Amino acid sequence: MTTPRTVRVGSRESPLAIAQSEEVVSKLLTSFPAHDFTIVRISTGGDRDKVSSLQSLGRGTFSKDIEDALLRGEVDLAVHSAKDLAPDLPDGLTLGGVLEREDPRDVLVNRWGVTLAELPASARIGTGSPRRGAQILALRPDLHVLPIRGNVGTRLEKSRGSDYDGIVLAAAGLLRLGMQSEVTEYLDPHAFTPEAGQGTIALQVRRDDAQTMEMIAAVDHEPSRNSLTAERAFVDVIGGGCNVPVAAYARREAGKFRVSAMAALPDGSKMYRIEVEDEADDPAAAGARAAEVLLDQGARQIVEAGR
């Protein structure tokens, strides 16, 4: 049993990040009501740079400053959107657990309140994600995909302005902020593969902090952690960085572990999709195999060209 103490929780400063950290604190308080939890807001490089495109910033830009604070002992626990984490964690840190995954799907929001298939030709859809852009254009090559930056509220506001007709973003962010009424369409994850880790809150700790590790174990959701493990293994094997549209979505169905994966050219003109099914006892192996199958089916040339 852990000794009551004050636990400092490191978080990005955005409204969504704070909502996620508050969700973590709420769950931890249920198991550890004698503890005090303080959310420490940390400015990250990705948040400070409001000009560069998301793909030029690279994976890990929104987590590195929080990880550095954790390594320095300024916080005891770091809360991340799992999709923001780099494939390789810094020495001395580990993922102690994850909360139960929120809806992993992407959603469409647009001024007409219609589905992606019903959007008028030449509609302007905002996204900062090459993965989303490629899948939009694969389904609707007549649309214009435009870059967009900002937190959820900022992107929603821009979608109502004169420069955009709509946006595609993660369902989980809107749900956690109570903004689900904004959603026009939930995009089928089999036709529009989510980002690895999308919808998952990851809890990061120092490897030598046994007390915090024990505490996090009380809120860890094993099925969600297994899915994240598979998806991160996929990213690690596939490579390609943030400029190549690749994605994996893992889940357990009917006693098996299934991983759907895709790789595409940025303009959506060529796309590879696969699905592998493995026994449920080795998620990392399932994710790695999905990457190898996708590469062997033709995606290797796309990934290597994007490096």
Task: Itemize the secondary structure elements and their pairings.
Elements: E1 6-11, H1 15-31, E2 36-41, H2 45-48, H3 54-57, H4 64-71, E3 77-81, E4 93-98, E5 106-110, E6 124-126, H5 130-139, E7 144-146, H6 152-159, E8 166-170, H7 171-176, E9 185-186, E10 201-206, H8 210-217, H9 222-238, E11 246-253, E12 256-264, E13 271-279, H10 283-306
Parallel strand pairs: 1-2, 1-3, 6-7, 6-8
Antiparallel strand pairs: 3-10, 4-10, 5-8, 5-9, 11-12, 12-13
Helix pairs in contact: 9-10
Structure, explained:
With 307 residues, the protein is of the alpha/beta class. The protein has three domains: 6-99 and 200-220, D-Maltodextrin-Binding Protein, domain 2 (3-Layer(aba) Sandwich); 106-186, Periplasmic binding protein-like II (D-Maltodextrin-Binding Protein, domain 2), CATH 3.40.190.10; 232-306, Porphobilinogen deaminase, C-terminal domain (Double Stranded RNA Binding Domain, 2-Layer Sandwich), CATH 3.30.160.40. It is built from ten helices and 13 strands. The protein has helices spanning 15-31, 45-48, 54-57, 64-71, 130-139, 152-159, 171-176, 210-217, 222-238, 283-306, and strands spanning 6-11, 36-41, 77-81, 93-98, 106-110, 124-126, 144-146, 166-170, 185-186, 201-206, 246-253, 256-264, 271-279. The strands form three sheets. The protein has a five-stranded mixed sheet, sandwiched between helices. A hairpin with a 2-residue loop joins strand 11 (246-253) and strand 12 (256-264). The longest helix has 24 residues, at 283-306. It is globular and about 60 Å long. The mean pLDDT is 93.
